[in-house]
Design a protein that fits this description.
The complex is a heterotrimer of chains A (167), B (424) and C (308).
Chain A lengths: L1 H34 L8 H15 L1 H6 L15 H36 L12 H4 L1 H19 L15
Helix pairs in contact in A: 1-2, 1-6, 2-6, 4-6
Chain B lengths: L1 H14 L4 H15 L5 H11 L6 H14 L2 H13 L5 H14 L5 H18 L4 H12 L1 H4 L4 H10 L3 H28 L12 H27 L4 H19 L5 H34 L2 H12 L3 H18 L2 H16 L6 H17 L5 H9 L4 H24 L2 H9 L1
Helix pairs in contact in B: 1-2, 2-14, 3-14, 4-13, 4-14, 5-6, 5-12, 6-7, 6-8, 6-11, 7-8, 7-19, 8-19, 8-20, 10-17, 10-18, 11-18, 11-20, 11-21, 12-13, 14-17, 15-17, 16-18, 17-18, 18-20, 19-20
Chain C lengths: L1 E6 L7 H16 L4 E6 L10 H6 L5 E5 L22 H8 L4 H11 L3 E16 L14 E4 L2 H9 L3 E4 L2 H9 L5 E5 H6 L8 E3 L5 E9 H6 L2 H35 L3 E3 L3 H10 L1 H26 L1
Parallel strand pairs in C: 1-2, 1-3, 5-6, 5-7, 8-10
Antiparallel strand pairs in C: 3-9, 4-7, 4-8, 4-9
Helix pairs in contact in C: 1-9, 5-11
The chains are: A mainly alpha (167), B mainly alpha (424), C alpha/beta (308).
Bound molecules: sodium ion (2 copies).
Chain lengths: 167, 424, 308
């Protein structure tokens, strides 16, 4: 079961990476259309934003699974294994609770948009629930992954954190 | 009082090793609930953070620099620069700074710049007998040019948070970036003059130079296309990033033939991971920001500032001290996201240009990246150079002093930043 | 004591912000402090496009959003962006009058999304900006990239032979400065507040669209107020709406003066030129009717009645 969650979230991670690559293609196409053919598209800007919303949230679980979320671990790393385990458990529980709220209210927003027929006020008029669904979906995946990591916590050695980041 | 309590809660949460994104977002949620505001703001904040075209520049610039990294252009670049300046006193150090500055023009991140150039420069400089701490410190500091010379992810974030023009921020970074690189070079030459530990490099002959430059030329051209394209308005920052990504694939996969399918996949996944971690922090900060705005904390603080500080220099000095202190423990994104919503409303009444202030902020972020105990560039160089953190720290302090001095210079001569975007 | 929080995209010093301040003062005074109004300007809480959802869901009690933000859900609201539909102050005043069938129909549709429209904030007409001479007729736009700020305005630019480029208000200056677009459109007060004379040299006074902002209140919040509170709010809304509407002509006149003083050319098209614009943009009316259905057709009929 836990393996299944891992595999599912790895697949979504790959999908997100592909989505960002696709955005690069769309934007390049848009620049070429505008400068070479004087015919800017009406969809490139909006579609790339939609891909961005989707990609970010469906890949949140992947990033947690590979423990790449940026944290300040300088203090925690000085604790013993028990202390680190407690800190890790606290973090996973905290994330799990946050996911619960995000899923509940994310669904609330999405269902209201379906009920009212909300659509974006752009050239494409895309139904809003199509992007809003990325929030409840993404945080369900993240919640599952946090749960999986919690279940594993007593068995696995507690991770020694690194201060990640890309700045 | 309320503000102090909230800040204390945030510090405690961060200290437990809770991921920054969820420390900010979760605390924001808690504040909303306690204050009787609707938690639906959590979901709204998550959605609206990524529903932003300008932010697309982040994944695209990351894709571009990752493709170049996997395509191994750093080694070519370093070899080319070294063939021209390697024989100078401290020549390899000069080559390192120049390579960092050139790579900075295609990368939006300090960590990527430090890691990329570090992989090529640390072994070379070590072989030639340069003092180890100097080498490590130089790379940690040189890497920070990555966020001052455009493109720059922190500038994109600054522009998104303050609604200032990202192109203007990018252009304003060029002058100070070149100045800082120049100061690093001067320091390196002086250091070499008063040190006998290293062996000078032989002068490369013309043929060697030509061959090395030929291989690095496409990379330099790419950097030129991006900066000129931005300046001339051919494309927006996001589009520059998209075109840069496409060109970097062309360059590494077709022209140089150094990027294979596996390398491309790795580049895409790495860029995705970094993007998502950054965006989750932005989303967390957005929720936290909404909560403290409803508690009227930014409004109260900027009122406090505007009713007590009338001199711009006092404001800038205080903020720089605060940022230096914060920078010991916090990383760039949190500093910017916590501080800017509070500071931005105070800039205009004090007559401080928001673009200029953005540049000062970025230099302070650069300091934060190399000040212990928490400094991402320290960690990266520690890993790349297989060193002790203490060795890196020992070499880094002269560069911190140079950076802080450069803030003073830019305060005295604001045109160093503002000439290119507004007067050229 | 009841608190009404209002989210606003623009800074407090903008005329919409000042209008909300006038509302705050009026309501707090008349209610003796029983009703408290808090304004959150400069998109501190929500961007313009998020406001309909934010107010509709009750996350915030009140907000102000450009009317075109409803266009995705209620396409008929874009009647104000159908080119030259209301191209004079007189026409606009008729269309937005309290008893106007156009305004009533739109308010009613919006109420169906859980938000009540308290009042309409005038923002002025849309003008065209260009470099090196005015845009007298559609021919002057042919083949040009034109900054637009909405779907219907984009269709307008396409209809007259240009290429529409959606550009946000904050990137507008840079887009003109660097030539990302060749021409553009904006409210004339925006020319002044964003110092667009530094990058464009000519205004063509087309007034081809009318920009309206709506001040919204969540319907549940509204129903939860006492009858007396509702009366105070409604009266204040009427008062500040009229004040801003009356002030708008002067705000625009000042903006034109400021633009001229900065060396901008201001060109007013002749009646024949306007007719040429109108003829070239005729397909947009059909597109609008198609998107906006029965309500759209009804609004067009009502608008034509106002003209005669
Ligand atoms: Na850079
Ligand atoms: Na630091």
């Amino acid at each position: 079961m836990l393996k299944l969650i891992d595999r599912l979230n790895d697949a979504f991670g790959w999908l997100a990476a592909a989505a960002f690559v696709a955005v690069g293609a769309m934007i390049t196409y848009e620049v070429i259309m505008r400068y070479v053919f004087l015919a800017p598209t009406i969809w490139a800007e909006e579609m790339s934003r939609f891909f961005q919303i989707w990609a970010t949230y469906i890949a949140a679980a992947y990033v947690l699974r590979h423990r790449q979320l940026i944290a300040i671990t300088i203090l925690v790393n000085r604790l013993g294994p028990a202390g680190r385990r407690i800190a890790d458990g606290f973090a996973l529980l905290w994330i799990l609770l946050f996911c619960g709220v995000a899923v509940f209210y994310g669904l609330d927003i999405m269902l209201e948009s379906i009920r009212l027929g909300r659509a974006t006020s752009t050239m494409l008029s895309v139904p809003q629930w199509m992007t809003e669904i990325a929030i409840p979906l993404g945080f369900t995946l993240l919640g599952l992954q946090a749960l999986a990591e919690l279940i594993r916590l007593p068995k696995n050695p507690p991770a020694v954190g690194e201060d990640h980041g890309e700045f | 009082m309320e503000a102090a309590l909230i800040l204390a809660a945030l510090v405690v949460l961060l200290a437990t090793g809770l991921p920054i994104a969820f420390a900010l977002g979760g605390l924001g949620l808690l504040l909303l609930v306690i204050g009787g505001f609707s938690p639906i703001m959590v979901a709204q904040g998550l959605y609206s953070t990524t529903d932003n075209f300008i932010l697309l520049a982040v994944p695209l610039f990351l894709l571009m620099s990752n493709v170049l990294l996997k395509g191994g252009v750093a080694r070519d670049l370093y070899a080319a620069v070294q063939s021209w300046v390697g024989h100078w006193p401290g020549g390899l150090a000069v080559a390192t700074v120049l390579s960092c500055a050139i790579f900075a023009a295609i990368s939006g991140s300090s960590v990527a710049t430090a890691a990329t150039i570090g992989t090529a420069a640390i072994p070379e400089m070590s072989q030639r007998g340069y003092n180890r701490s100097f080498v490590l410190g130089l790379l940690a500091a040189g890497g920070t040019l990555g966020i001052l010379i455009p493109p720059s992810i922190p500038m994109i974030v600054y522009g998104v948070v303050t609604e200032e023009s990202i192109i203007d921020l990018f252009l304003a970074g060029i002058g100070p970036g070149l100045m800082l690189a120049g100061a690093f070079i001067v320091f390196s030459i002086l250091y070499a003059r008063f040190s006998s530990a290293y062996q000078p490099m032989p002068r490369a002959d013309f043929r060697e130079r030509l061959a090395a430059t030929w291989r690095a030329l496409p990379t330099v051209t790419l950097a030129g296309i991006i900066i000129l394209g931005l300046y001339l308005g051919v494309f927006t920052p996001t589009e520059a990033a998209g075109v840069g990504f496409a060109l970097s694939i062309l360059l590494t996969a077709v022209v140089l033939r150094t990027l294979d399918w596996q390398g491309f996949k790795d580049a895409a996944v790495d860029a995705m991971q970094t993007t998502v971690t950054i965006f989750l922090i932005l989303a967390g900060a957005k929720i936290f920001g909404k909560a403290i705005t409803l508690y009227r904390i930014p409004q109260d603080i900027s009122f406090l500032i505007s009713s007590n500080i009338t001199e711009p220099w006092v404001f800038v000095l205080i903020i720089c001290i605060v940022l230096l202190l914060m920078g010991f423990f916090l990383e760039a994104l949190s500093m910017m996201l916590i501080m800017m919503p509070v500071l931005h409303p105070s800039l205009m009444p004090l007559g401080i240009d928001a673009i200029w202030f953005g540049i000062v902020f970025v230099i302070m972020v650069e300091c934060a990246l190399i000040t212990p105990p928490v400094g991402l560039n320290l960690f990266v160089i520690q890993a790349v150079g297989k060193a002790e953190i203490g060795e890196v720290v020992a070499g880094v302090w002269p560069f911190i002093i140079i950076m802080l001095s450069s803030v003073l210079v830019i305060y005295l001569f604001p045109d160093i930043a503002l000439y290119i975007p507004f007067k050229l | 004591e009841t608190t009404l929080r209002i989210t606003l995209q623009l800074p407090i010093k903008s005329h919409l912000g000042q209008n909300l301040l006038a509302f705050e003062k009026e309501v707090e005074e008349k209610s003796g402090g029983d009703l408290q109004v808090e304004i959150y300007p400069s998109a501190q809480l929500y961007k313009d496009k998020e406001v309909p959802q934010a107010v509709g869901s009750g996350a915030i009690e009140m907000g102000t959003a450009s009317i075109t933000r409803f266009a995705g859900t209620i396409p008929a609201v874009d009647i104000f962006y159908v080119p030259f539909m209301f191209n004079s102050e007189e026409m606009v005043r008729k269309a937005v009058a309290h008893d106007s069938p156009i305004r009533s129909a739109i308010d009613k549709e919006i109420l169906g999304t859980g938000t009540r429209v308290l009042w309409w904030q005038a923002y002025g007409g849309a003008i065209m900006l260009s470099k090196g001479g005015p845009l007298k007729t559609p021919d002057d736009v042919k083949g040009k990239k034109v900054r637009v700020f909405g779907k219907t305005l984009g269709e307008f630019v396409s209809a007259v032979g240009g290429s529409p480029v959606l550009t946000s208000g904050s990137e507008q200056y840079v887009a003109y400065q660097r030539g990302t677009v060749d021409a553009g459109m904006t409210g004339v007060s925006g020319v002044k507040s964003r110092k667009l004379w530094q990058v464009m040299d000519t205004i063509t006074v087309t007034n081809h669209a009318d920009v309206e902002f709506l001040v919204l209140i969540n319907e549940d919040v509204w129903q939860g107020l006492s009858e007396e509170q509702r009366q105070i709010i409604a009266a204040a809304a009427r008062k500040v709406e009229a004040e801003l509407r009356d002030k708008m002509a002067k705000i625009e006149a000042d903006a034109y003066e400021a633009a001229k003083a900065e060396g901008m050319g201001v060109y007013t098209p002749t009646a024949a030129e306007i007719d040429a614009w109108r003829a070239a943009s005729a397909p947009v009316i059909e597109q609008y009717k198609e998107a906006a259905g029965d309500l759209g057709a009804k609004l067009v009929t009502e608008a034509e009645k106002l003209r005669n």
